[in-house]
Design brief:
By secondary structure, this protein is α/β, with parallel strands linked by helices. 38% of the residues lie in helices and 15% in strands. The chain folds into two domains: 205 residues, Rossmann fold, CATH 3.40.50; 204 residues, Rossmann fold (3-Layer(aba) Sandwich). It has 14 helices and 15 strands. Strand 1, helix 2 and strand 2 form a beta-alpha-beta unit. The longest helix is centred in the middle third of the chain and has 32 residues. Bound molecules: ligand SAJ. Ligand SAJ binds next to helix 8.
């Protein structure tokens, strides 16, 4: 029944959470001709989408507007409409709490929202990155409290999101999708469903296997970033250029994958997701040492950058205290506007704590709030560069004229390889590289 409706694309698809994961997913399935309803708690997002306006960089409004006009995509804050949906994907945040434990509150709330409208024949899919066992232990148990049986009355699966913000090459349609069902029938249905709009769908044997695959993907990144960050710390002590060392290793055409050191690890995934895995294993009396060590090294990097600033100012017989530092790029990585867990925020906080006067320039982030303080970017002018005792490159955003910066700055601490290695500066500025 549901399978045929999916094959006929005669289904109502609901997406809970219209953020950088949910909106691209919703739009892709609407483009495939399905009637998609986005469920959002934020009325402003619903209002903007209803007017055909997107607030996610990777989803142009020119894509959203025609789908809204054709009635293929709509957004609502009325969660009762979930009862009309045949398939529902949950794309809500899975952050860490203050004590760095999983904060499952969004998943619990979404599961409750679904439970209250659950009916026979619905397929529910969790996309949020989470610890292995969430779909089976948390969601299935909750949803079966309705008296409906998973695998016969309703269906339940996990399919990890793999959105790489601002990636020009890979989007929802052409990024292979993993699916794993809580039972065989659920897995079959999720596999058929995603295959309607995604080029390649791989079926795993269970929801937990799919949850674990996703965590391997992100732990792999966190550990390898931690490794090259430690290489940077070791090269510093050996008087070697870590960028040259990595470029050298990267000439190996097999058995090596290039990662680069940086000011730290930001974003909503890499700094957080691996700790969902280590938390789960702790409940099973196992210590995930790689995850913890990578986390330690990666969170050390902002402090290391501040140490480079302090040592470089010291060479000019200046102290951090009382110096003016201009940070270029406060987003969490190059060419995104997202600030979440941005290491630049840690750099800024430590510099201010040590008495520096800190300004920033980031065309992607014209202003932001951090704690109870509001920050507004300064223009990247000759005057601003000259006023700064030190410029810190925390993002190598496209569109910044690095020659211009080196022409007018006195001192640059480059944590993003914006300048050629061996510190040859294209201008009078002295350059210190990570
Ligand atoms: N970073 C480094 N060195 C590197 C790579 C990254 O310092 O060699 C830093 C970045 O500057 C950033 C952080 O690590 O602060 C995370 O970068 P990222 O590109 O891994 O992370 P996200 O969160 O933008 O997206 C990642 C996806 N990225 C890629 O695959 C390139 C992917 O791992 C997931 O699809 C996504 O997280 C997710 O949602 O899990």
């Amino acid at each position: 029944m549901l399978k045929q409706k999916i094959l006929d694309r005669n289904i109502r698809f609901g997406v809970i959470g219209l953020g950088y994961v949910g909106l691209p997913l919703a739009v892709e399935f609407a483009k495939a001709g399905m009637k998609v309803t986005g469920f959002e708690v934020d009325p402003r997002k619903v209002e903007s989408l209803s007017m055909g306006e997107s607030y996610i960089g990777d989803v142009p409004s020119t894509e959203v507007a025609p789908l809204v006009k054709r009635g293929l995509f709509s957004a609502t804050t009325d969660f009762d409409e979930l009862a009309q949906m045949d398939v529902v994907s949950i794309c809500v945040p899975t952050p860490l709490s203050k004590t760095r434990d999983p904060d499952m509150s969004y998943v619990v709330q979404a599961t409750e929202d679904v439970r209250r409208r659950l009916r026979k024949g619905q397929l529910i899919i969790l996309e949020s990155t989470t610890y292995p066992g969430t779909t089976d232990e948390l969601m299935k148990v909750e949803l079966e409290k309705t008296g409906l049986k998973c695998g016969t009355d309703f269906f339940l699966a996990f399919s990890p999101e793999r959105v790489d913000p601002s990636n020009p090459q890979y989007g929802v349609k052409n990024t292979p999708k993993l699916v794993g069902g809580v039972d065989e029938v659920s897995g079959d249905l999720a596999h058929v469903f995603y295959s309607q709009a995604i080029d390649r769908v791989m079926r795993l044997s269970s929801a937990a296997a799919a949850e674990m695959s996703k965590l391997l993907e992100n732990t792999f990144r966190s550990v390898n970033i931690g490794l090259v960050n430690e290489m940077a710390l070791m090269c510093d002590r050996l008087g070697l250029d870590v960028w040259e060392v990595i470029d050298g290793a990267a000439t190996k055409p097999f058995g090596f994958m290039k990662f680069v050191p940086g000011p730290g690890v930001g974003g909503h995934c890499i700094p957080l997701d691996p700790f969902y895995l280590s938390w789960k294993l702790k409940t099973l009396n196992y210590r995930a040492r790689f995850i913890e060590l990578a986390g330690e090294i990666n969170s050390e990097m902002p402090h290391y950058v501040v140490r480079l600033v302090s040592e470089a100012l010291n060479k000019d017989r200046k102290s951090v205290n009382g110096s003016r530092v201009l940070i270029l790029g406060v987003a969490y990585k190059n060419d995104v506007a997202d600030m979440r867990e941005s290491p630049a925020l840690d750099i800024l906080a430590v510099l201010e704590k040590e008495g520096a006067e800190v300004a920033y320039h980031d065309a992607y982030v014209p202003e932001f709030r951090h704690g109870d303080k509001a920050y507004k970017q300064v223009d990247l002018t000759v005057e601003e560069l000259r006023k700064a005792d030190c410029v810190v490159v925390a993002c190598k955003h496209k569109g910044v004229d690095w020659g211009f910066v080196a022409q007018h700055a006195k001192l640059i601490v480059d944590s993003r390889n914006a300048y050629p290695r061996n510190g040859k500066s294209p201008g009078p500025a002295r350059i210190v590289k990570l």
